[in-house]
Specification:
5 strands, alpha+beta, single chain, globular, Trna Endonuclease, Chain: A, domain 1, 5-stranded mixed beta sheet
Length: 130
């Protein structure tokens, strides 16, 4: 039986895959310390993946986690965020969880870097802009 297409094939990809899981776990713990409630992790849809879905004070937050070796790479990491993919995945998520459609929605990014405190960019981008 051939290997699953969703699983990493090389050592470098496996390391990145594991690093992604670790980064998302750290980001979830960081958000929980800030009194967010994590309602979903690694939500996969046909149109994209959402790293974390959280709620705080009645606001549903879709969180993209970006891990980098150095904190100086945050600007390029934010530019690399595929906003349209995340917005489409969030719309799919809302369609599957209609009770969340009545809550305000927000898109955040959490940057992780070695030897640096996580940086949480609240309302990193607006879904109403094309």
């Amino acid at each position: 039986m051939p290997p699953s297409p969703s699983k990493p094939k090389s050592k470098a990809r496996l390391k990145a895959y594991r690093g992604g899981h670790w980064g998302e776990t750290l980001a979830a713990l960081f958000l929980q310390a800030k009194l967010y409630r994590i309602i979903d992790r690694r939500f996969k849809s046909p149109v994209g993946e959402i790293d974390l879905v959280a709620q705080r004070f009645g606001i549903t937050v879709f969180v993209e986690v970006k891990a980098r070796t150095h904190a100086s790479g945050e600007a390029e990491a934010l530019a690399a965020v595929n906003q349209q993919r995340i917005i489409r995945a969030a719309q799919y998520y809302i369609a599957r969880h209609p009770h969340l459609a009545q809550t305000p929605l927000r898109f955040d990014v959490i940057f992780l870097a070695r030897r640096a405190w996580p940086r949480h960019v609240i309302n990193a981008f607006d879904a109403s802009r094309p």
